[in-house]
Design brief:
Mean pLDDT: 89
Strand order of the largest sheet: 3-13-12-7-4-5-6
Oligomer: single chain
Shape: globular
Structural class: alpha/beta
Strand content: 15-25%
Amino acid sequence: MRSLMEVQSKLLPDLLTVMQKRYEILKYIRVMEPVGRRTLSASIGQSERTVRAEVQFLKDQNLVQIHASGMSLTKDGAQLLAGLEEFMKEVSGLKVLEARLKERLNIRDVIVVAGDSDYFPWVKKEMGRACVSRIKESLSGENIVAVTGGTTLAAVAEMMTPNLHKCNLLFVPARGGLGEQVENQANTICAKMAEKASGRYRLLHVPDVVSNDAYHSMISEPTIREVLHLIKSSSMVIHGIGDAITMAERRKTTHEDLLKIIDEKAVAEAFGYYFTEDGKVIHKVQTIGIQLEDLKHIKNVIAVAGGSSKSKAIQAYLKQAKHTILITDEGAANELLRGNP
């Protein structure tokens, strides 16, 4: 394939550019359908005139259909996009980026999607779609899948599709709720994933952070203890990686603990643990659910986090979690490599 690409770039230098442009349009329509032409134009940074011409071409090729509600892909368009995926990753250099980042971070695997979710919110959906693809690759037999909360995991849930492998799937929340918007809580995301994947789910009706006395009281409840046993028995965990200060503020952390997190220069948070740039845990909150040490015994651990602003947080957390599969975006990947010459 590489030799064919080199020949094409010499004989038809504009061909790959045109292919990439049309591929980006199809990809954006897929994650946002139905989408209007003006929104599409603004999101991909092309003039409406250019987009109009390209969309008309794609419509003529029966790859796109246009309705009053907006544009969407046809079955042929979806199949073509799926078939082009690996080729376009090679052309765009994402394959090289994945290999370099995997080696630099020294983790199990890395998947990089195009774009930067700090600037283009739809990139989160692309990370979500990549995560769903990796989940399905890893499924076999009976599976207990534990998921955390947050906007990135909500995007994973949104992109979930039916379980084509017909595996026995049970979704559980990896921890209690954060008290944030209900659509971003682990329970909600867990239930949505199960619904879209045609699986089952169990919920954990406890706060994310509790006092020591409340913790021991809650885990003695039979129903909570049963769900906690399922969570600890997970064969797969899907989680996000947070910025330390942002997460501390969302948890309404006490002033004393917040000062500690700031003074000791924590940059990352995951599962209630706060990490410095060198991966050292400097603070932990009492949470009900998966603990950091539990991850060592779980077969598949997938972290989904992107955006150039998240690079320090991603790197800090992964110093503690070398068996992780990272799904990220181009913005974070480039920043991670730039910060590690």
